[in-house]
Amino acid sequence: MRKNIVAGNWKMNKTFSEGLALATELNAALADSSLNCDVVIGTPFIHLASVAAAIDTTKIGVAAQNCADHESGAYTGEISASMVKSTGAEYVILGHSERRAYYGETAAKLKVKTELALKNGLTPIFCIGEVLEERESGVFFDVVKSQIVDSLFELSAEDFSKIVLAYEPVWAIGTGKTASAAQAQEIHAFIRKTLVDKYGKEIADNTSILYGGSCNAANAKELFSNPDVDGGLIGGASLKVADFKAIIDAF
Ligand code: PEP
What we know:
Elements lengths: L4 E5 L6 H16 L6 E5 L5 H7 L5 E5 L16 H6 L4 E4 L2 H6 L4 H13 L3 E6 L3 H6 L2 H13 L4 H4 L3 E4 L13 H19 L1 H6 L2 E4 L7 H5 L6 E4 L6 H8 L3
């Protein structure tokens, strides 16, 4: 059966020492708890190796927030999937709406990044989601479906079964405006149906589909209680241990 996952996305926050302190504090806070979900923290690249060495990675997985669309070579400033993997990270967040909007990440580029992540043994947390106008005009089902089809549907069933999806309506990210539990369930069920149609019921049922967008301690329980919401991708509320732990404890 699919896993419940609470994944933090630190974005471009925390200096090296602050990030290490945050990860260490989270590790201590979770040490004695038996968890009802997998926990992942998505740190900036520079933190990955030190965070992975400082925490119990059997309890907290480590994620990069991006990787390159090339294997290696003359791509100044880029970090490859194999480099990410070599730090001890097991996950990579791909296709976050901020990367799509500010760094021109196209479906084609994300397809390559996903393939390289999988080839190098990383679990992609693949983000999809519509902007406000697409929600309001009702085209959001088509938008989300295209994001999945265009980047992921050439994967073999075996590779697809390693993907975690994160539905993140762009209008809810960092805005304090959360999708209602009913809105989240509606689109998550649609996403799962899209997976059933392509890969069959077993793979669709085993795919974790996370919700992201102003998820916090106050709304996590209601969001996660939906049958097709398998956890959350958490931005702002992952930067404080008490807030993040409260979301983890919603399971
Ligand atoms: C995110 O960026 O993935 C996110 C969900 O951010 P926030 O929780 O701050 O809305």
